[in-house]
Predict the structure.
Amino acid sequence: MQTVVLQIEGMSCGHCLNAVNRALSGVPGAEVTSVQMGRAEVVVSSSGVADALVGAIAAAGYRATAAVAPE
């Protein structure tokens, strides 16, 4: 397991937080640990899940970049 930190562009309100949280929660192999304005942390079961997280955020209408957090 590893933690992926997502930098998210386009979030501006509580609705945005909820939309991003729902999008991330729907990705298999991902456990959302934190969603804040412009940032999210997700524990993933494999490295390929990070791409799925970015795609889920894009489908929700936001842009994201992902980086694996140092252990």
